[in-house]
Each structure stands twice: as C-alpha cells, then as structure tokens.
Amino acid sequence: MQKISLTTKAGTVEGACDPKFSAVVDAFVTNFEARGEVGASCAINIEGKPVVDLWGGRKAPAGDPWTKDTISIVFSSTKGGMALCAHILADRGQLDLDAPVAKYWPEFAQNGKEAAIVSMMLDHSVGVPHIRPVLKPGGMYDWDYMVDLVAKEAPFWPPGTRNGYHGVTMSWTVGEVVHRAAKKRMGKFFADEIAKPLSLDFWIGLPEEQEHRVAPMIQATPTVEMMQSRFIQKAMTDMSSASHLFLRDLSAFNPNSREGHAAEIGAANGITNARGLAGLYAPLVNEGTLDGKRLIGKDAITRMSRVAMATHEDGTLMIPSRFALGYMKTMDNRALPPADSASCLLTEAAFGHVGAGGSIGFADPECKMGFGYTMNQMGLGLLLNDRGQALVDAAYKALGYRTNAGGAWTM
Description:
By secondary structure, the chain is α+β, with helices and mostly antiparallel strands. The chain has a single domain, classed as DD-peptidase/beta-lactamase superfamily (Beta-lactamase, 3-Layer(aba) Sandwich). It contains 13 helices and 13 strands. Strands 1-2-4-3-13-12-11 form a 7-stranded antiparallel beta sheet, sandwiched between helices. A two-stranded antiparallel ribbon has the order 5-6. A two-stranded antiparallel sheet has the order 7-8. A hairpin with a 5-residue loop joins strand 11 and strand 12 (about 360-365). The protein is globular.
C-alpha cells in the first residue's frame, strides 16, 4: 500500500491505498472538493486484507482534523452488526430463524402478532415499523421501556404479508430476540462475539472513555426538492403513517448527546469508522473465517445474503425496496425523482446497510470485498447520496466491473 497525504479545501486526506484502487482516492478527494464533505473515512479490504484506508477533513467545520482514530455515529449502518448477532446465534443453534417469536419472547405474541416468526424481525415484515404512542422524554434510550412498547404494539399489517422499513424499532425487535436467545444484551453480545474478536473500533453503546474520539454529526439542510419526495409527502400528509412516525421518532434521538451515544439502539446508534464497517464484513467474504478464526458458517452466509423480501412500495420509505435477512441488497430507484436519493447500487451478490446521511458498510462475496464509508456531514435522501455511491462505483471499477446500468454492478 502507498502512503497518501493530500491537501483539499476541507483539510488533509491521509491514509494508504493499493495503487489499483487509486480511483477511490480520487473520488474521496472529489467529495471534499466538490460534494460538500466535511470529515470522512473510507476503507476497503479484499479477502480480508486492507487495500484502502483513508480519512480526512475535519471533525467539524473549521474544527479539529478528522484523524485515523476518529469515529462517528453511522445510524442504520449499525443494523449490519445487529443482524450479524442474530445470524451467529442461528449458526450456533441458539436461535431458530423459522421459529415463532413467542418461543423466545412470549410477551411479543399479542395484539395480532401471535403468528410472527423470527425471520420477519429481520426482513422488515413483522409489522411494527414504529410505535404509535408518543414516547416519554428520553424513552428511546430506555431499553426495557422500548421493549415493552414494541411487545404491546398492534401490527400495522398482519406479520409477514408485506414489508415496511423498521428504521428504529428493529433495535428492539431483533435486539430483544438476540437478548433472549443469547441470555446477554445485544450490545454486549456484539462487543464480546464480534467487535473484540475482529479487533473493531465499533460500539453499540459507546463507553464514556471513547467519547473524545467522536465527530459530531452535521445535519443536512432540507431542499424544496427533498420536501417533494414521496416519503416526505407521505410523512407530512398522513399523521398515522409509518413514514410520519419514522420522522417523529428520529427527532426524539439526539445523535450528538452523551445519552444518545451510551444507549443501546442497534438499528441506529452504532459508533465506528470506515475501518470498523469494512472489518465487520471481512469474514463474510471469506466463508465466515478471518485470520484462521471462524466467526460464522458458509451456509449461514448464504442465507443472510439472499433476498428475503422485496416490494414495489415499502410501507415506510414509500419506494421499491429489497432486503435480505437484516441487510439491504442493491436497489435501483434512479427512475424516481432525484429528490428521493433512493438507490444503492452494488452487485447482486452484495449485502450490507446504509445509514442516514449516507454512510455504508457491505460485504461482496463475489469479489471478496468488505467496504466501509463514514462521514459527519449528512446528505439528503433515503439511501446513498453521490458521495458514498461515487466511492462504491470507483471500487467496483477498480475491480474490473463494467456497468451498473441494469441495476447492479456487473462485469
């Protein structure tokens, strides 16, 4: 790998890169020069070995430099880590993804959710994308309170009959099933069974001693175009909709507070950097093993990477969506109005997750790539904006992929 040190108008870009992936460096720099990046990191591994490790810019506008060890909230990119907890338990025989939820969490089987099965928690079809009651102040940071609300909630549709993105409630639908099956809270299971063995700087519930490393998130400024997107229009015109409740609940979470960092919100408050996201997926492109250590089996990876649920209109996001069990698949919604920013173009084999504002982590078993991108300046849209997609595109081109015109990168 060649050492990188470049100056941009937003600050210095540093790190290292295999020359084969120099176009990723170019795209990373262009993000600072032309696409409004403030601080960011990008990491790529191939067969578990690093080929790109970049960071740059600033932790805040005109603030301290974003360094190698800077971390930030990655919002829904956290879901990839939480889902992996469930799949590891399934691989070990401690969790049956085809069993009724009631086998592990009897309290959930009420108000029309009695027939729900565990896999529905992972593919966004279980029917509780959001909570109807207004949360108490700080409620989202209270695990037992949120678990009780989710268990009591009547489904928005009969479980398994359709899907709608469980943007926040997945923290407790999947999280509590993991808790019951593992006899250990999900955040601790993630730390003990994934982050520590893989040596990842990645937390779901950040220790206070790591707080000084966190770059605060910078909210995006809404545009007229964004306000006309189908998701925002639904959220603003139907106050009982999952879309409206998604925005309402997000506003109850402060991503720059100590309370928000310390809580265990497995769908939304993981804190890491690109190295942590790419490292999370490194074993999953190597048949479940990294550096001779087995994390999960090959059959489990096959199951976790397959499309489990797809729809022409997601019940929350109001766009066509495609999900594996806990992960997003390539989604091509470029025909929608540009304000939606509702695409994430990978290969058909890849699986991972984007986060609000534009972060992403994914595995691509086809080309043995683990990928991570994090940033502090949030972008608009539901999935990847032009900063993250430019990095993904450059990586695939470096690997010899020819086009994504068909909705997925192909040779």
